[in-house]
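Handout, section B. The chain below has 375 residues.
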Amino acid sequence: MISILTIVGARPQFIKAAAVSRAIRTRYEGKVREYILHTGQHYDENMSQVFFKQMQIPQPDFRLSVGSGSHGLQTGEMMKQIEDILLAQQFDAMLVYGDTNSTLAGALAAAKLHIPVIHVEAGLRSFNKSMPEEINRICSDHVSTFLFPPTETAVENLSREGFVFDACKPVSPDNPVVKNVGDIMYDNSLFFAEVAEAESSITAKLGVEHKPFVLCTIHRDFNTDNAGRLESIFAALNRISTESNIPIVLPCHPRTAKKLDSLKNKPAAGIQLIEPVSFFDMIKLEKNASLIITDSGGVQKEAYFFRKPCIVMRPETEWVEIMDTGNGVLADANEDLIVEGFNRFINRKESEYPELYGDGKAAEKLIQIVLDGLA
């Protein structure tokens, strides 16, 4: 039996971990023992613990409770504590997800101790190194032994960076396995969509049941911590709300909530600011929204899974396929472009959503590849 230490610390990672943990329990019992380490990067109840409860993720074996802080402080403290755990207990591999500081800290700590790193969502590139996430994902890819890009675009990105795709044993960071098995977020969307529809009453509570509404999320620090950008975003949301008379539901990230009092463009009456929501509530909102406005990479994909048009409040995206299909638009923090995107999509007739993200069995496939590579 192989032992894998899984690193999680932020909402998207809890969701992805549910798919892999479920695959291990149902298909690889007796072959894989998973240990979960929660870094504490997200420590709000609705952004952390509730995901474990609702998605039936095993409770963490290790908790760091690192909390917020500067990128260097947060990443460094995580590395220190993760290294202590790796030195105290033997693991055959470490699994990291996505592009957060938790991802980078885990990948670096393991790689320096010659523990194989499994990077799920490898190869994604925004081509903007001013984004901390871009640095995290590039560095994590280049120290990993198993890389699982979720799209063909991600595969092409890795190819341009010199990765080779026909690795023979023994595998290592210098001879990694690179394989597109699909997107595990799609696995979860298929698995949990019906459960969320039945379990969540969020749309009824907000008064938008069977009514048009816009779902919006804002959490990237380059939006929340830049007064000019945040003012422009809320100016656009206010125009959309007042001109269209369509309500906007905005689950408020703690970083965004801290900035609301200082806004000159105070949120209009039609913008419903609510606390961060559970996974099931978020799925219910995404499934029932008329369109989605976000700066989140994960929410972009979830919008696509549920066939919802998406306005992205960033100058670029790692999910270029969504833009290429015409179901997303890059608006950055430009007030006019955000409003134009809304006007373009709100009354649009049905659009095509090609299958981009696999067959819903990505988690099972990647675990089997790891088993074969480590055998």
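Note. The longest strand covers residues 2-8. Compare this with the example in section A.
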